[in-house]
Amino acid sequence: MDKSRFLPRQAFQVLIDALSDAGFCVVGPIAKDGAIQYLELHDAHQLPHGRTDEQAPGHYRVTEMDSPRCFAWATGPQALKPYLFGAHEALWNARRDAQGALHFETVQAEPKALAVIGARACDLAALALQDRHFIDAVRDPYYAARRTDLFIVAVHCAYPADTCFCASTGDGPHATSGFDLALSELDQGYLLEVGSSRGADIAQRLPLQDASDAQLRQAEDEVNEAARRQYRRLPSRDLRDALFGALAHPRWEAVAARCLACGNCTSVCPTCFCHAEHDAPQLGGESSQHVREWDSCFSEGHSYLHGFLVRGETRQRYRQWLTHKLGSWHEQYGRSGCVGCGRCITWCPVGIDITEEASTIAGGGTGGGA
Amino acid sequence: MNPYLPREAEIVGRTEESSNTFSLHLRLTDGRPYDFAPGQFNMLYLFGAGEVPISVVADAPDSGVLTHTIRALGRVTNALQALQVGDRIGLRGPYGRGWPMHEAHGRDVLIVTGGLGCAPSVSIIHHILGHREDYGHVHILQGVKHTDDLIWRAQYDAWGSLPNVQVLLAADVAEPGWHGHVGLVTTLFEQLDLQPERSIAMLCGPEVMMRAAAEGLHARGLAAGSIYLSMERNMQCAVGHCGHCQFGGSFVCRDGPVFAWPEVRALLGVRGF
What we know:
- By secondary structure, chain A is α+β, with helices and mostly antiparallel strands.
- Chain A is built from 13 helices and 16 strands.
- Chain A has two domains: 5-85 and 109-228, no CATH class; 240-274 and 298-362, no CATH class.
- Helices cover 32% and strands 24% of the residues of chain A.
- In chain A, the strands form four sheets. An eight-stranded mixed sheet of chain A has the order 3-2-8-9-10-11-1-12, sandwiched between helices. Chain A has a four-stranded antiparallel sheet with strand order 7-6-14-13, with no helix packed on it.
- In chain A, helix 9 crosses helix 11.
- The longest helix of chain A has 20 residues, at 314-333.
- Chain A starts with a strand and ends in an 8-residue tail after the last helix.
- Chain B is of the alpha/beta class.
- In chain B, 18% of the residues lie in helices and 34% in strands.
- Chain B is built from six helices and 16 strands.
């Protein structure tokens, strides 16, 4: 952090304008409809000044706090996933001409360069995993088109929620890579680090001042304290063998008795990548659009195979989700698919806690639960 | 390059194999090359309805005609059955890892199939017959639930009459006058003149059958790593993105559909995977 410079709070608008002038559509946190969401940001006054979030299993509220800060919250319901891997996206059109011949045309992804302000360390870890899934093995042109120009202003997290456990997965609360700029928020303003040459170009346009030792120390203390305050944790070892060795554990049945198989957890999970494809024929009958939408391994049709369901029971679906997220992700991408953001705990209508289930089934760790 | 975009194919022939099984013979209309390995599959697209993964067999080398044998079981496959010669569909592929034809060089090949599992294995037989000197004895073991389900009887007769090819058929339930074996396909192993050290096995069919066959062959001395099988799961993207076909850590569409038995042995037949 010793290269950090200081950006006064009242100069934050300069950052938004600099990104906007550089051609980016700027997105940042805005409190809307009772949640902090990444939305289009034009004015620093749109930021959630003096707001924080209160999270617990099955519980999320945006509340007021007496603070000049704008990033004094942990996570909104969505990370960056919807901006890169669209929840609903047309892939191609099929057109049938009068002779019955078919013509296929790609639906071009809109090349809108996006700058996101406020990304958390967990969001960036999740983004790196989605990059591996959608770009490294087989390039998904829709994801890749948006990813190429994405500009990221990370904000180190000093306000973890009750549901957070990024410190135990090694993904936060301090963002160490994957950003163009990173900010630490203090009451008077921000400490700014540069993470890329594009970031340096933007930083040049900002009225930066030298940061004091006290400011640097405070930022470091706050992020360290944010890690210490997290009491939920996942066992840090590779859980693959432990989970696949416990496929008959009675806990699967117990958690299935609570689980509604609603798919909230997979919707808010920043690494879940499952999606379904279907055709949407146009009314005229001469064309049809091939569409993909987020799917969930908790949905009934996810495992459909010529007339039967591979996972007909909720027990099997929860087991699939957990053994994949914490187990077989290691085989696929060399690490766990969980970045410790805690969203699946917060947004589960019945408050199922992944850390508690994993600890009970795989052993080790401390689990959660107050 | 969009990996999801189909190409147009014309139905140049169709064969009714049984009451609910049919073959579409397709030719790509864009004139661009298409090449595949035995055991790979295509995504077939029916206009306005969607895509289904179907394994591909070439009618004859260099004919440019690709055969897909399909059982009408769901929305798309039922509608595909109604198509006629001259109709157009979409096709993209080939996808996945096919049969280990190279590893099989110089060895006896044992092909054990159940039900419509015979379809993906036809490409193995075609390949071997087209490169006969590269392979040893061929044993074709096909099992069906009921003899009514047995398609390609003339084909089996023709293969069985070739030198160094043994065809053994089994049905759990037999029609009157059936001359084949009655019982599970694995009970045919007793009739095999198996030389395990120089054999390789390729299995295709229901998972319970493949698991029993793999265990049965292994018990008869075939090395676990010389047993291969073709898996099926829900597949929508065919490139390892959509997530439906995951089997433990494998994406069946991309890492398979053909696996060496040790790769899938732990979860094979475990309900829910």
